[in-house]
What does this fold into?
Amino acid sequence: MDLSIGKTPKMRKRGRIHAGRSPYRKQRLSSDARVIYALLKRQPQKRDQLCKNAVIKRSTFYNVLPLLEQSGIIKETQEGYALCHYEESEEAVVQTIKQWKNIAFRHPTVNEIANDAGIELEIVESLARKTRDKTGWSDPNQAIIESATEKLGEVLVCAARMKDGHVKNGKSEYFDYENDREILEEGERFRQEHSEMLPRLTEDGDDVVSWPPETLKYLGKIYKPKDRGIPYVGAAHPPRY
It folds into this structure.
């Protein structure tokens, strides 16, 4: 009688992952590609952590390291190994965040940073958090975005009214800015520093005819200004020049 017919199969050791389940085996990535892929997900990384995340042995890492370094793909920093463009990417993230804060009155989202800085989405958030001491960055929620959009829209419309002569020296016969000193101040700043962002207004300055494409990037939508018209008591409203 053949006792092997009902034989209990060998059990795999507990905690070990079968090679067939490895994402790298499925994608058939080379060892150097695994290192790059692991760094795209998070960087910098110390050697042992990088080997673990790339699913390669330490000896294999040292085999592919010279090629990756000589090709200008990765480098060793004080904090571990990183892709060679890491420091440039870090600075690009810092400048992008500062620009958004200066123009949009809020911090950008992770997607907005990635789009503006031209950096892989996978590493943007880690860079934004790493450089937080330089920017104060936090990922804005929808309420913050909507509030900032309204403020930016009002500031730009005010700046356009200044340019068209509907608001002069912080005052207007036609539009009420009496309780919005900050809008007036920021409007003057945008009129001087970001005139290319101002909308084209109707002749009377009441509404927006069109927004520049670059401005819509920060607004996120076609913004319609608040009704700030001052009611005129008399036979006719004075002409606007």
